[in-house]
Amino acid sequence: MRQVPLPGLILVACVLAVTSPGAAPQDAQSSAAPARVAFEAATVRQNKGGTGQNQRRLPGGRYTATNMTLRALIRLAYGNASLFRPEEQIVGGPGWIDSDRFDIDAKAAAEFVPDADGVTRQHLAMLRTLLEDRFQLRARMEKRELPIYELVRARKDGALGPDLKVSTLDCRPGAPPPPAGVKCGVSSDGPALVGRGMPISALVAFLTISPAVGRLVQDHTGLTGVYDARLNFVRPFVLGPGGAVPNPDTDSGPTIFTALQEQLGLKLESRKAPVDVLVIEHIERLVEEK
Predict the structure, then answer these.
(1) Whole-angstrom distance, CA of residue 53 vs CA of residue 171
(2) What count of other Cβ atoms lies within 10 Å of the Cβ of residue 180?
(3) Torsions phi, psi of 194, nearest 5?
(4) Same domain, 102 and 163
(5) By CB count within 10 A, which of 39, 63, 78, 131 is most buried?
(6) What is the tens place of the pLDDT at every residue in 235-285?
(7) For residue 90, what are the domain limits?
(8) 161 three-state secondary structure
């Protein structure tokens, strides 16, 4: 068995870092959008025999989802770009939304248009409309006190760890390309997380979506600018034949909590804070078209 790979988490972290960690649409019926947007055409069918699951935003304004539970689709639709809304931030709904699986093949009238920050979210607004229309979904956002982590400096003198250093790399849009062999942003080097010219928001985004952390993370480091970092830790899950399972070799290296302190000079402090939670008020089973 091998550890769950980092690239997927890193890709999501890069997307999330340009917004705010843990951010999501402010209103369940999406007050962020000036008008209700919908796919031009969409087919939704129950999947009764497929294996694996995925969702993709494709060229030409096409969106597909395969063998996904309704809860997973809701987590995606009310998340942020590629980030699923965490499980603990969705409450309510009947048991079948965790067992019945669905396929979606949808087409917008034109290419999906990125927002001003360059992140494409238009397909999520259309997916919310689709769920409202086909499953009669009604939901609302409310604040609830939930456990979170604050990322803070670990040392009393504020000194950073040996593997977190101020970067001289200019990764801003329009800047000259980095030297050969150097990659801006967050990437993986085997089991390690590597950041070059990385804002702390990118690290916070990675921690927020990491199964090794399991909570929303907020930045309280006071660190500005960009940094070079390398974080080596043993992940709590590995990939087996049937998917992710607990890692039997967790003693082979530091946990992410220990690695943050020893390598970066940062730590995660637990506390409770108001968090936006999606409350499912009403939902109905799919009536498939004949």
Answers:
(1) 34
(2) 5
(3) -120, 130
(4) no
(5) 78
(6) 766 555 444 566 666 666 799 999 999 999 999 999 999 999 999 999 999
(7) 41-143+277-282
(8) coil
